[in-house]
Amino acid sequence: MRADKFKSLLLIGGTLAVLALLLLGSNGERTEDEHITVRPPESVFEVPASPEPTYAGTVGKNSSFFDLMLACELSPQEIKDIERTAKEVYDFRRIYPGQEYEVYTASNGGLEKLTFVISDEHFVEVTKTGGEIAAERKEYPFETVHRTASGIITHSLFVSLQEQKLPLELGAKLSDIFAWDIDFFTDIHKNDYFRIIYEEKTRHDGLTKIGRIIAAEFNTKGESHYAFLFENEEGFSDYFDAEGKSLRKQLLKAPLSYSRISSNFSRRRYHPVLHHYSPHLGIDYAAPAGTPVMSTGDGTVLTAARNKANGNYVKIRHNNNYTSYYLHLSRFGKGIKSGVKVKQGQVIGYVGSTGYATGPHLDYRVKKNGRFVNPRSLKLPPANPVSESNMAAFSELRERFIVALGGIPINDWRTQHYATDGETPDGESGGIDDASRASSSR
């Protein structure tokens, strides 16, 4: 009995001694062999989600920014402060249907942040910190890759693009680039062909846009016209031909798109309204009423008026040598009036049938040194070429792109559009995989 009690005491004492050693033997410090695992709550491992906006919506018909923000429970004063602060960045009085917005508010209901979409590429961000409102115009980030396209002309450039399910925007960009040398309504013929290297830009949400054309070849009547994007002397990117000459000239070849010539320049033409022979000192471009008409060059508006014969017309002086005329307009472009300076490609009016006209068309005329000349036969000087100091860099770029363009197979309407694999001359990936092939053949 005593022996059993003694054993029990020894067991209890030993246990206490071991515990004491564990607690005090290392001055409270853990040895290298000891591992203590503390598992925090599961939420610590969760990636915090982006905060949801308090309000979100899309601008509807006849909506005003003030009413939309009132519906988001912002105060009238706060809305006025936003409009005033953002005015230099974006005029919220000019919102239009389809624009999207998100409003984030604080616990007291006041504004924390507002995002307002103003285009596919830009949005306005308004923030309020410590009572101060700030507004900033921001760009959406885009991932840019290079694509290639080519085709044979069957009826027109735009028909060729449609047949291959290519973005029609490529046609507009291509015609803009070569607008000074090629009239895409009169100068191209069946079996002419084109090759293009262009940018494809993808936004974070999957929206895809066509960016710049990087290099292009357009072959008409067996002659290839080249365009290469290169940084000019002023630090801006511009297009140059194979010899380094600028593709920009003093006047565009044509003042509008999507048209046909219904009457050429003539010293003796039978007038369809007056019914007698008289000179026709311009080019008539038949086009749907309302088609935008562009100034063919930089200049100053001398006249934006109406008379019995010309109807609504605009007269622009480009320099001491050239003056252009645009007759029979349905209406003038925004802000177009005498004394206003205009840029090449700026819309100055819209096709109509005012004055002596039997149907909607534009009568386009050009004076050179005070005498009317045929706009289609003008030999116009280009802008500044690539300088000698930059010619070596341009020549290297040109050679790389000529090789790249030459490697693009020429596709016609009977073949499915595809792009070449490999790299574009600047080193960016130009090949397409199965996933991107569909986007290149839209």
Give the topology.
Elements: H1 2-24, E1 55-58, H2 65-71, H3 76-86, E2 100-105, E3 111-117, E4 122-129, E5 132-139, E6 142-152, H4 157-163, H5 168-177, E7 193-203, E8 208-220, E9 223-231, E10 237-240, E11 260-263, E12 266-270, E13 277-280, E14 283-286, E15 292-294, E16 299-307, E17 311-317, E18 322-332, E19 341-342, E20 347-351, E21 361-368, E22 371-373, H6 388-406, H7 434-440
Antiparallel strand pairs: 1-2, 2-3, 3-4, 4-5, 6-7, 7-8, 8-9, 9-10, 11-14, 12-13, 14-21, 15-20, 16-17, 16-19, 17-18, 18-20, 18-21, 21-22
Helix pairs in contact: 4-5
Question: Mind explaining what this structure looks like?
Answer:
By secondary structure, the protein is α+β, with helices and mostly antiparallel strands. The chain has three domains: 85 residues, Nuclear Transport Factor 2, Chain: A (Roll); 163 residues, Nuclear Transport Factor 2, Chain: A, CATH 3.10.450.350; 118 residues, Distorted Sandwich (Glucose Permease (Domain IIA)), CATH 2.70.70.10. The protein contains seven helices and 22 strands. Strands 11, 14, 15, 16, 17, 18, 19, 20, 21 and 22 form a ten-stranded antiparallel β-sheet that branches. Strands 1-2-3-4-5 form a five-stranded antiparallel β-sheet, with helices on one face. Helix 4 packs antiparallel against helix 5. The N and C termini lie far apart (98 Å).
